[in-house]
Amino acid sequence: LKPLDSAGPSCRDYPRVIRRSASGAGSEGTPPSPVDRFRPRVAMPHYPEEIEYSEKYADDKYEYRHVILTKAIAKDMYRITACKRLLEEKEWRSLGVQQSYGWVHYEIH
């Protein structure tokens, strides 16, 4: 997802949550071009009907997995964190994310 304006998107534009194992059109005052009127500011996020889990992949140090939340669960996550911090294990488990022990919330994008 790439924002088109310089202000950048809010964290609400990015529902995707990644977990990792422990082991614009002109400047202000310039009217947009006719084409820009119809272009979305941020690409629409993908919200699955159920929580989606990617296949695991790894580097030399960590194992990774992407977790894509439903729209309702993403809203709950934003209420808990106000997009200012990552979730603790107890919090992401309470939202319905299922991972084996040792996984930590690493990034929101």
Care to describe what's here?
Helix content is 19%, strand content 20%. By secondary structure, the chain is an alpha+beta fold. Strand 3 (57-58) and strand 4 form a beta hairpin. The protein is built from three helices and five strands; from the N terminus they run βαβββααβ. Mean pLDDT is 75; it is low at 1-10, 13-17 and 24-28.
Task: Detail the poorly predicted runs.
Answer: 1-10, 13-17, 24-28
- General shape: globular
**Number of DSSP helical runs:** 3
Q: Would you count the extended β strands for me?
A: 5
| Cα distance spanning the termini | 9 Å
Rounded radius of gyration (Å) = 17 Å
Structural class: alpha+beta
| Order of SSEs | EHEEEHHE
Major sheet summary line: 5 strands, antiparallel
Arithmetic mean pLDDT: 75
What is the helix fraction of residues, given as a range?
A: 10-25%
**Fraction in beta strands:** 15-25%
Helix and strand topology:
Layout (H helix, E strand, L loop, with lengths): L15 E6 L12 H4 L14 E2 L3 E2 L4 E6 L2 H11 L7 H6 L8 E6 L1
Antiparallel strand pairs: 1-4, 1-5, 2-4, 3-4
Structural descriptors:
globular, 5 strands, alpha+beta, 5-stranded antiparallel sheet, 109 residues, 3 helices, disordered N terminus
